[in-house]
Amino acid sequence: VIGTADALTHVLTAAEGSDETARMAAKSLGVMTAAEPEARAKLLASLDEGPSGSYADERRLETLRALANLKHVPAKEHFATALRDGDTRIQMGGVQGLGRLGEAARHHVDDLVTAFAGGNESMQRSVVEALGQIGGADAGGVLRQMQTREDLSTSVQRALRMAVRRLDKEDEREERLGGR
Fold first, then answer.
1. Positive or negative CA dihedral for 131, 57, 34, 45?
2. Which of 15, 16, 68, 73 is deepest in the core (most CB within 10 A)?
3. The whole model's pTM is what?
4. Which residue has the higher pLDDT, 37 or 179?
């Protein structure tokens, strides 16, 4: 199981190489869905140290994906930093990570809006989905404001409708529960 600290140490070491094994080790990080607290801390520390080797970018991306899969709230600043990376794949990892954190990422709504403004269609769609996952008044307001734009692609408009519908359902559920 890669989710143990000992196993993760071996995978991180293997990912520092420059051969196919290093690439596969990096890829294996991104599919983690469970990990011991010590392993989560080790993943986070590996981002702080900065991955090395031929597949450093791949390892960084897959580490972000792992932390997103694990919904590891202490990684939220790494996700936000990733939004400003020069590599679109890393930016996307940051967007998806913040979205997976849900309401724990609410103070990063403005960062996501900036990523939306500078992003391509795929990035915009992912930002919309992340804002829908984050929820709350700020994200909801941004999504509703985005809906008024006529310059967005069909796929982004569709994602907006779905995200707003999701937030509306959450609002209705909260009203019903609050009214009891």
1. negative
2. 15
3. 0.90
4. 37
Which of 48, 87, 85, 88 lies closest to 67 in space, CA to CA? 48
Provide the percentage of residues in the chain whose pLDDT is more than 90: 67
Residue 86 tokens, joined: 């020069």
**What does the CA dihedral 77, 97, 131, 162 come to, rounded to 10 degrees?**
180
CA distance 135 to 109: 10
Q: How far is CA 66 from the centre of its chain?
A: 10
Residue 80 CA to residue 86 CA, distance in Å, equals 13
Q: Which of 21, 13, 12 is nearest to 44 (CA)?
A: 12
DSSP per-residue letters across the chain:
-TTSHHHHHHHHHHTTSSSHHHHHHHHHHTT-----HHHHHHHHHHHHH---STTHHHHHHHHHHHHHHTT-GGGHHHHHHHTT-SSHHHHHHHHHHHHHHGGGGGGGHHHHHHHHHH--HHHHHHHHHHHHHH-HHHHHHHHHHHTT-SSS-HHHHHHHHHHHHHHHHHHHHHHHHHT-
